[in-house]
């Protein structure tokens, strides 16, 4: 399913507030895969991520009368998934603490030309993995999940300017690493 616009999500939020099951179903179908992918950053097992996201949607429906149509429903969903994921980690400490799982970071931009048989993509994933946790979280929410700065601020419980600072720092680090990589490739030739 295509990525819903902010306007569409806001409309669904208003309809869900009025107990519209069809709008809830459309929101669920459009956001579920993205939220599971996000939850997988915290949990290595897909079944756990699926359960968490399903619980989030059950909670959303049960608390629908409290939806604020002036707040981002998308950010609210990501925040709920994050919080439930962290609660699950706390409650079941044998689960791997997220955002480090290498296989989940293999989602760089597929349209990027990668002329060296995946080496650049591999390095980029490693560089992202090496970012400080908060920078990495802000960067991934922005670039891989499509959240804007205000939505990320809601998920991370920080200000929009802090989100911007994290993303700018992450991009600067990644740009520096890429320039080093390019220089090393040139030196090899």
Question: Secondary structure elements and their pairing?
Answer:
Elements: H1 6-17, H2 21-39, H3 46-62, H4 73-91, H5 119-130, H6 133-143, H7 149-156, H8 160-188
Domain RNA polymerase sigma-70 region: 27-92
Organism: Fodinibius salicampi
Domain RNA polymerase sigma factor 70 region 4 type: 130-174
Give an account of the 3D structure.
This protein is mainly alpha-helical. It has two domains: 1-98, Orthogonal Bundle (Rna Polymerase Sigma Factor, Chain: A), CATH 1.10.1740.10; 110-189, Arc Repressor Mutant, subunit A (Orthogonal Bundle). It is 67% helix and 0% strand. The protein contains eight helices and no strands. It has helices at residues 6-17, 21-39, 46-62, 73-91, 119-130, 133-143, 149-156, 160-188. α2 (21-39) crosses α4 and α5 (119-130) runs antiparallel to α8. The longest helix has 29 residues, at 160-188. The radius of gyration is 18 Å and the shape is elongated. The relative contact order is 0.10.
């Amino acid at each position: 399913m295509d990525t819903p616009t902010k306007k569409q999500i806001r409309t669904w939020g208003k309809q869900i507030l009025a107990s519209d099951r069809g709008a809830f179903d459309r929101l669920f179908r459009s956001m579920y895969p993205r939220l599971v992918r996000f939850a997988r950053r915290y949990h290595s097992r897909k079944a756990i991520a699926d359960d968490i996201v399903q619980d989030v949607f059950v909670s959303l429906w049960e608390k629908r009368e409290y939806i604020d149509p002036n707040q981002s429903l998308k950010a609210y969903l990501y925040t709920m998934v994050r919080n439930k994921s962290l609660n699950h980690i706390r409650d079941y400490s044998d689960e791997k603490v997220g955002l480090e799982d290498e296989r989940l970071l293999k989602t760089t931009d597929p349209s990027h030309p990668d002329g060296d048989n995946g080496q650049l993509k591999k390095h980029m994933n490693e560089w992202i993995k090496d970012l400080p946790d908060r920078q990495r979280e802000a960067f991934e929410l922005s670039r891989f999940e499509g959240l804007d700065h205000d939505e990320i601020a809601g998920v991370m419980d920080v200000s929009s300017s802090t989100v911007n600072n994290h993303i700018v720092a992450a991009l600067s680090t990644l740009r520096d690493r890429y320039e080093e990589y390019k220089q090393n490739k040139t030196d090899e030739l």
